[in-house]
Amino acid sequence: MGNGTIEERVRKIAEHVATDHGLELVHVEVLGTRRRIVRIYIDKPGGVSHQDCSVVSEHVGTILDVEDFIPSSYVLEVSSPGLERGLYKREDYRRFAGHRARVRTHEAIQGQRNFRGQLLGFENDEVIMDDRTRGRVSIPFVSIARANLEIDLEEEFRRAEQLAAERAASERREESEESDE
Fold it and tell me: Backbone dihedral region of 105: left (phi > 0), alpha (psi from -120 to 50 degrees) or beta?
């Protein structure tokens, strides 16, 4: 497999397996030294299933065991990135423009390291964001220590209520059509 850190090598393997199964590799983490934890986050439109995680785990695990470049025992975890998924790649910031997010920087930008608000986009290697306290800010991509989407629970509840109302209306229409027959 060649040189590179353990994480880089795992990422290369996971990327290949995910792509082969029509999945997106979101992120790879290798934690610990004595008993390592290898975490792989995958996604696809509509979300990943338990079966998707199982297939990736089986394939990546087999390759890691054959390649044998992790010098100690390890635990392999494969999962979806979750609702508050991390933002790792430049493309993530373009893809999730319009969504709410939290961004933490390595160093202060205009006296601030933590930003929360709406992602506006990505341009000139900077994340453009409408921060709740500062307004529009440009955050250099290289300055980002950690970033993730932030779920708006009120919006999620409104969306769930709207779906429930639409389902109920559809069921009433179907019942009405059946009684007309």
Answer: beta
Which helix H or strand E contains 38, and what residues bound it? strand 36-43
Tell me the pLDDT tens digit for each residue of 34-53: 889 999 999 998 889 999 99
Q: Which are the contacts of 11, defined by CB distance < 8 A and separation ≥ 6?
A: 25, 28
At 107-116, the pLDDT tens digits run 999 899 999 9
Ordered domains of the chain (ranges, CATH): 6-79 (3.30.300.70), 90-149 (2.30.30.180)
Which residue type occupies 164? A
Confidence (pTM): 0.73
